[in-house]
Amino acid sequence: MNSNDAANALDGVNRTEARLAERARWPFHRHAMFGLAEGLVVAAIAQPTATGGGMIAVAMSLLVICIMDDRRRHGMFISGWQAGPTRPLTAVLVLIMLAMVFLSLQLRDGENAQPLGYLIGAVTFAICTGASLLWEQLYRAQLAKGVRQ
């Protein structure tokens, strides 16, 4: 491979990434489904086992729907753990989620519903939905800029 072949190959990769950046748009309901799934898991931890188990089952179903919809819409599922500017956001979101889980665990008594657990879940929903929207913006900007020079 000579330098022209390498340059042409790199141009092809950059054009593909630019096309992907244009297509990499998710509807708001997709971001909200992710946020709801995370919020349900956090809220479920504070609830009695039967209620929490049902909430976790719904959350897992939402994640499966998200993945299936991504594959149908884009032909692939893009994990949140990507190299580049999205990774610090994902790491911060994981830390926030761990803090929310810890709060829910502090409320749990195993027998009684904990209304504050639902509030913590609602806050988690809002944070995760907003983070998902921001993640998409960062990801699209990264693709549009092109990480390969």
Terminal Cα separation, in Å? 18 Å
What is the average of the pLDDT values?
A: 88
Number of strands: 0
Task: Tell me, briefly, the overall form.
Answer: elongated
Beta-strand portion reads: under 5%
Number of domains: 1
For the largest beta-sheet, the strand count, sense and barrel status come to: none
Helix fraction bin = over 70%
By DSSP (H or I, 4+ residues per run), the number of helices equals: 5
What structural category do the secondary elements indicate? mainly alpha
Please state the CA-atom Rg, rounded to the nearest Å. Answer: 19 Å
Given as residue ranges, the uncertain stretches (5+ residues, pLDDT < 50) are none
Q: Return the string of H and E elements.
A: HHHHH
How would you describe this structure to a colleague?
The protein is mainly α and 149 residues long. The chain has one domain. Helix content is 79%, strand content 0%. Helix 1 runs antiparallel to helix 5, helix 2 runs parallel beside helix 4 and helix 4 runs antiparallel to helix 5. The two termini are 18 Å apart. The model has no long low-confidence stretch (mean pLDDT 88).
